[in-house]
């Protein structure tokens, strides 16, 4: 069963299982390639994966539980890198990140 992450610009299926660890996020991102998602979703997931990987190394390994601190640090890094993206791409990435957080095991 899947549910849909909705935002103004993106729709992406998410497993009905909550995302609890960094490895779960990576598995979700990998699974997008097997689904019929648009290029914006694939772009946003790849962009986010880079930031998550960067931040996660300072918190532990891939099996670590997603924490409020980890999410906050990824959010700060994304805001700091805002100028790397066009305004439209920035909205796509931000909306995808915010929607994805709704599937994290309650922090």
From TrEMBL:
It comes from the Bacteria. InterPro entries: UPF_YfcL. Pfam families: YfcL. This is YfcL family protein. It comes from Colwellia asteriadis. The lineage of its organism: Bacteria, Pseudomonadati, Pseudomonadota, Gammaproteobacteria, Alteromonadales.
């Amino acid at each position: 069963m899947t549910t849909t992450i909705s935002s103004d610009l993106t729709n992406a299926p998410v497993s009905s299982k909550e995302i609890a660890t960094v490895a779960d996020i990576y598995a979700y991102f990998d699974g997008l390639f097997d689904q019929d998602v648009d290029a914006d979703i694939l772009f946003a997931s790849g962009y986010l994966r880079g930031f998550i990987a960067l931040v996660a190394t300072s918190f532990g390994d891939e099996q670590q539980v997603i924490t409020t601190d980890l999410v906050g640090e990824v959010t700060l890094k994304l805001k700091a890198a805002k100028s790397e993206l066009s305004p439209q791409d920035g909205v796509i990435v931000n909306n995808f990140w915010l929607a994805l957080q709704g599937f994290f095991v309650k922090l």
